[in-house]
Design brief:
By secondary structure, the chain is α+β, with helices and mostly antiparallel strands. The protein has three helices and eleven strands. 8% of the residues are buried.
């Protein structure tokens, strides 16, 4: 048996067990919805038409969910004016499962069970995501209190050896005894430094040789200059003296 019903300004042809998407209806998921505006009924070759409705006919359904439909884009444009506007709209809708159709002493029921799984849940499962409805419910459950674990005994760390080898010639601080606790300064012991190595004997003659050679090198140029001066002196000829006149008068 089938029927043609009217809801939300539209007409739908339904049968028991069909899933119907109509304009938004009031009610919670799992509630029962009844339609009394039945325009026609039929079963095989027998068809009954209403004028305009069939009296006593009804269609019952179970509300599965109320959701938003697919987005519809609204685009406006005025040419040569630079005017463009784009908007979107999602119409609210209700999803129903038709359970029974009756009228004129006849009634046909659907024997199946109504599944209230929403489309968002089905899509999430198909993509491998968490269920948006079941996930919050799982989080609401209180977690079992974990038993407190026995505290583990920590191994005692070995005391630091403060008596480490100090560099040569450094001052080493020694712990102060109880008797010397009142003294303002700590007691420090100096380690004797190693004796400086004695100078090698071979180094002494080298230093003396350098001191003896130094004045000889400086005196050599002076002697050379003196010899050059003595050689150059005889090279000069004495100037000729002016001859005096024989008469004794002035020249």
């Amino acid at each position: 048996m089938y029927a043609v019903i009217k809801t939300g300004g539209k007409q739908y042809r339904v049968q028991p067990g069909d899933v119907l998407v109509v304009e938004k209806l009031d009610g919670d998921a799992g509630s029962e919805v009844s339609f009394d505006q039945v325009l026609a009924m039929g079963e095989g070759a027998d068809v009954t038409l209403g004028a305009p409705m069939i009296e006593g006919a009804f269609v019952k359904a179970t509300l599965i969910e109320t959701r938003k439909g697919e987005k519809v884009k609204i685009f406006k444009k005025i040419r040569r004016q630079g005017y463009r506007r784009t908007k979107g709209h999602r119409q609210p809708e209700s999803v129903l499962r038709v359970t029974s159709i009756g009228g004129q002493g006849k009634e046909t029921k659907w024997d199946g069970e109504v599944d209230l799984t929403t489309r968002a849940t089905i899509n999430a499962r198909a993509r491998g995501f968490k269920d948006p409805v079941e996930a919050p419910a799982a989080e609401a459950k209180p977690a079992k209190a974990a038993k407190p674990a026995a505290p583990k005994a920590k191994a005692a760390k070995p005391a630091k050896d403060e008596t480490k080898a100090a560099p040569e010639g450094a001052l080493v601080e020694q712990p102060i005894s109880e008797v010397e606790a009142g003294a303002p300064e700590t007691v420090a012991a100096e380690k004797p430094a190693k004796k400086a190595a004695e100078p090698k004997k071979a180094a002494a003659p080298k230093a003396e040789a350098k001191t003896e050679e130094a004045p000889k090198a400086k005196a050599a140029p002076k002697a050379a200059k003196a010899e050059t001066k003595s050689d150059a002196a005889p090279a000069k000829k004495p100037a000729a003296k002016k001859a005096k006149p024989a008469d004794g008068g002035e020249a």
